[in-house]
Write a structure and sequence with these properties.
227 residues, alpha+beta, 2 domains, five-stranded antiparallel β-sheet, 15% strand, flat
Length: 227
């Protein structure tokens, strides 16, 4: 009499929840990457779409057999993206030359005469310039107690100054959110309460965007806060 094999114990079978979580954790990074790339590509292509769209549509209308494919939406998006990237490279190349620097200076002089544009452009320009150099009295990337005592958040020191009445040295610290670092909080923190790090801005941004999954080899000790 033939003995039938015993069924595999249910304990060795992955549950529906385990399979779902595994699939979710596998697809989530792919989805986040796609969302970021789609947002960036869409933004870049939209910059050129006002003139790329009508031009490609006109060519497709005049030459329907050979260039009719130019009227497709994805083709116009791709052309707009390529055109924007080429324009960015052209501007970067020109600014590195004397003529380009003079043109940029003229543009900045012109935009400073527009009240709202002056505020937006000036603030963003100063922030980008500040991120390239270390401030006096503190490192650029620090840890701060936020949002509650005992918790630590990665922040970027944008400048340091002294309080008028107490003469305490304060630091303006931008604390970005995860995984989108374009939003965040501005904290005024005494320099003595900062936990300095030797991280670069790129390392800190990677740490924030990845939710801490990708991090430098070491993290500053929390005891530095009390030193």
């Amino acid at each position: 009499m033939t003995t039938l094999p015993e069924p595999i114990a249910s304990a060795h079978r992955p549950s529906f929840r385990a399979i779902f979580v595994t699939g979710l954790l596998t697809l989530l990074p792919i989805w986040l990457t796609w969302v970021v790339f789609k947002s960036v590509f869409g933004l870049l292509s939209d910059l050129s779409r006002p003139w790329v769209g009508p031009l490609s549509a006109r060519l497709a209308l005049e030459y329907p057999r050979g260039l009719g494919w130019l009227d497709a939406n994805w083709v116009q998006t791709a052309i707009g993206l390529i055109a924007t990237v080429l324009a960015i490279l052209l501007v970067g190349s020109l600014v590195r030359r004397v003529a380009g620097q003079r043109a940029l200076a003229w543009f900045e002089t012109l935009i400073r005469r527009v009240p709202l544009a002056k505020t937006i452009y000036g603030s963003s320009r100063q922030l980008l310039d500040l991120m390239q150099t270390a401030p006096d009295g503190a490192r650029r990337v620090v840890l701060v107690e936020f949002p509650h005592p005992g918790m630590r958040a990665v922040g970027f020191v944008t400048r340091t100054f002294r309080e008028e009445t107490t003469c305490i040295e304060l630091a303006a610290v931008y604390v970005p959110t995860t995984p989108n670092p374009t939003g965040g909080y501005l904290e005024l923190v005494p320099v003595t309460d900062l936990i300095p790090t030797d991280w670069s801005v790129d390392e800190a941004m990677t740490f924030i965007i990845s939710g801490g999954a990708v991090s430098p080899g070491t993290i500053p000790s929390a005891r530095a806060l009390d030193s």
